Amino acid sequence: MNALVLIAEPDPFNLRLLQEVCEAAGHEVVTALEGGAALDLVARKRPDLALIDVGLPMHAPLPTPVVPGDDSLGGLEVLRVLKADPELKAIPVLVTTPADDVESRRASIVLGAEDYVARPYRVFEIQQRIRNALRRVIAERRLLSLGDEELLDPLTRAGSAAQMQISIEYEMTRAVRYGHPLSCVSLRVAGLGRVIAEHGREAGDGVLVQLTQGVRGCIRAIDHLFRADRDELVVLLPETSAGDAKTVVRRLREREESGGLAGAATGAPLGLEIGVAGRPESRATDGPALLAAARSSRRPLAKV
């Protein structure tokens, strides 16, 4: 994503460094040296992302400072104003701070900052924080752009493949940002083609509908279920490590053994295959990589 990035930084050297990093990544940059100018640029330009230094001066102090009597925290004042504005609060903000300023980093997160970057800057860290913040922006915009008919699979009423792609990227970005676990489960009906060939399309549809209902009975309300492909369901498990996801796998296996998952739709074994991947166990750094890891680990459900 080639984004418009606002950099609000009073130090010319740091400003130039941040600008070069952003421009090297293909982003357009607008800059401000003090808080009032930063707020004006945000209102006029509506950037996709803002990098705001905690020590940004406010030439016209706001009436209710974040820390009374401390004029060095203008960056937090700007952040507070942005997050209080309904039209601007969705813009992600990265706050830049000195390495030892733990209190300002804490305050910035409380006020709604997406993340923070500590000085002295490390280029790879700046790049990664910007990428993570923009991934969330992209995911949210894509989700908002989908119509109701695109959000759900018309047959199973699980989330659609399009919604899955957006949601997995969003959840992965959130997991990385907060250091929370996230797991992905891929469940494939290996024998679906045979069912359709022997019993017809309606029987195959019945398998998928029953399987979706069975999976819903094995997951939590906060988990996300999608029909990812013709013969595949995917479950996203927020706040769940790969180890804890084994509980879901066990429930699915027990339900399959009792015939309550999907086998009753045709009376024939369906060859269900399941794979699980999670962070932090997996080396995946984005949503597609996590899904690919789950798919590559699939094996027969009965043997898991």
From TrEMBL:
GGDEF domain boundaries: 180-304
Which parts of the sequence carry 4-aspartylphosphate? Answer: D53
Give the coiled coil ranges: none
Q: Where is this region: Disordered?
A: 278-304
Q: Where is the Response regulatory domain?
A: 4-134
**UniProt-listed Pfam families:** GGDEF (PF00990), Response_reg (PF00072)
Q: Which UniProt keywords apply?
A: DNA-binding, Phosphoprotein, Transcription, Transcription regulation, Two-component regulatory system
- GO cellular component, as recorded: cytosol; protein-DNA complex
GO process annotations (BP): regulation of DNA-templated transcription
GO MF, one term, reads: transcription cis-regulatory region binding
The record ties this protein, via NCBIfam families, to: GGDEF (TIGR00254)
Name the UniProt record assigns to this protein: Phosphate regulon transcriptional regulatory protein PhoB
Origin species, per record, is Sandaracinus amylolyticus
